[in-house]
Amino acid sequence: MTTIRNPFSKTVIGDDEPLCNQKNLLSALMLEARSGNNNVLLAPRRAGKTSLAMRLARDYRAEGGLATLADLSAVPSADAAADRIATALFASLGVDSKIFKKLSQLVTAFVPVITMNPDGSFSVSASASGLTKSGIDRLVSVVASIDSISSQSNTPLLVIFDEFQDLAMLSDGAQIEAALRSTIQHHKASYLFIGSRRKLLRDMFESPKRAFYRGATTRELPLIETDEFSAHLIALAKVSGAVWSREITDSIIATAEAHTYSVTAIAHALYEMTVPDTPTAEDLAGAINTAADRESSLFMSIYASLTPQARMLIEAIADEPTKHPMAGDYMSRHKLTNAATVRKSLVALVSSDHVAVDGNGLINLTDPLLKRWLNSRWGKRHISGLPGMIT
Ligand SMILES: Nc1ncnc2c1ncn2[C@@H]1O[C@H](COP(=O)(O)OP(=O)(O)O)[C@@H](O)[C@H]1O
Ligand SMILES: [Mg+2]
After folding, report:
1. Distance 133 CA to ligand 2 centre (A)
2. How far apart are CA 86 and CA 110, in angstroms?
3. Residue 125 class from Cβ within 10 Å (0-12 exposed, 13-18 middle, 19+ buried)?
4. Ligand 1 within 6 A of 261 CB?
5. What is the whole-number distance in angstroms between the Cα of residue 50 and the centre of ligand 1?
6. What pLDDT score does 134 carry?
7. Could you tell me where the DSSP H helices lie in the chain?
8. 299 partner at 20 to 30 Å CA-CA among 131, 230, 309, 317?
9. How high is the pLDDT of residue 43?
10. What pLDDT score was predicted for residue 391?
């Protein structure tokens, strides 16, 4: 029996999997990489940033360039950042052994450690060489070696820092920012800084007080258009013999407000429930609930990490997106008692990017499934039979 894979991937899109649209942005970023320019790419969590960056790196390599992608999400220290960047650099040099030998030596703060996996493939990691001090010095040294590598190559080295704002959130973040900015400033490499905490990342590049001020062009990852997304979903389902109607795919996208991950998660659940049949509207309703339920532990951990006041506010916004959460009638409708507290909670929710101003100018949740989960969770409970006092 052949096992059919669910074509709706809930993780980062691999190099050989189809990516829906984003062609304009991809070609603009390719041009910027070839020209050695720096860019910032902003989008909410799970909108498709990493998938796009991986595709950019793949296409840049296909043209003969070198591209490296370091994931800095939740990085705990400058040392750990240096390690992650060095490992990403070594991995990107693995195109052929001559290049690897020649260029990996330029990363003086680390030596590559190659290990063979049980399946015969190889992995590379980075071990501190002892030639530089630890902490910011080591990080600066690794970033400086990016320039040495780039100088040896015909095209600029493309360096992608994913969730870059997390580096600035460390306690010595300001120092790290200043040190990196002066190291990167005259580089031949092209940098792409990506982040989902949009306010934090925007501030880093747009506030005159910050080291990276005007250091890059800021771009937003656009939502995928409904027409294209629908055609993409229909094509993916069809590969495994399932016929999906345009009504079904349009309604997935409408329910998920075109949020890339949410659309994919609902499609994933629907495919699983119905393949090889054509899904009905009833199937879709079930798949939406399943998709939201599957995120439950993540959503609960997000909710639990908020202050009680921020929890009250995010529930209010989930229930009723608004332009004015501090307006008296809004506050009383949602049992919010103090405007100063609402303002403080709003700042926290915006900086963690759980809420943002949407296309209609309303403060809204950035994750439509989280919104659904909040709206269905606490307020309503199923009862079996009617209580006796109702006649
Ligand atoms: N262009 C795209 N077309 C179709 N699906 C996508 C696209 N980009 C991302 N996805 C899907 O969206 C989800 C989130 O993608 P990811 O790249 O991890 O987002 P981010 O880095 O913004 O958090 C994944 O399930 C991925 O498969
Ligand atoms: Mg990502």
Report:
1. 31
2. 7
3. middle
4. yes
5. 7
6. 86
7. 23-34, 49-62, 78-92, 97-104, 136-151, 165-168, 173-184, 198-206, 226-239, 246-255, 260-274, 281-294, 296-305, 308-319, 328-333, 339-351, 368-377
8. 230
9. 94
10. 46
Q: At what angle do helices 308-319 and 368-377 cross, to 10 degrees?
A: 100
Nearest CA to ligand 1 atom 14: 46
Nearest to 39 by CA among 168, 135, 176, 156: 156
pLDDT of residue 23 exceeding 50: yes
Distance separating alpha carbons of residues 315 and 335, to the nearest angstrom = 11
Question: Do you know the residue count of the chain?
Answer: 391
Q: What is the pLDDT of residues 70-100, one digit of tens each?
A: 999 999 999 999 999 999 999 999 878 888 9
The predicted-structure confidence for 216-266, as pLDDT tens digits, reads as follows 999 999 999 999 999 999 999 998 889 999 999 999 999 999 999 999 999
Q: How far does the centroid of ligand 1 lie from the alpha carbon of residue 103, in Å? A: 32
pLDDT digits (tens, 9 = 90+) for 134-187: 899 999 999 999 999 998 888 899 999 999 999 999 999 999 999 999 989 888
pLDDT of residue 1: 45
Q: What percent of the residues of the chain are helix, what percent strand, and what percent coil, each to the nearest 5?
A: 50, 10, 40
Q: Which domains does the chain have, with CATH numbers?
A: 23-220 (3.40.50.300), 226-294 (1.10.8), 300-377 (1.10.10.10)
Estimate to the nearest angstrom the gap between the alpha carbon of 149 and the chain centroid.
Answer: 27
Give the up-direction half-sphere exposure of residue 355: CA atoms within 13 A in the CB hemisphere. 28
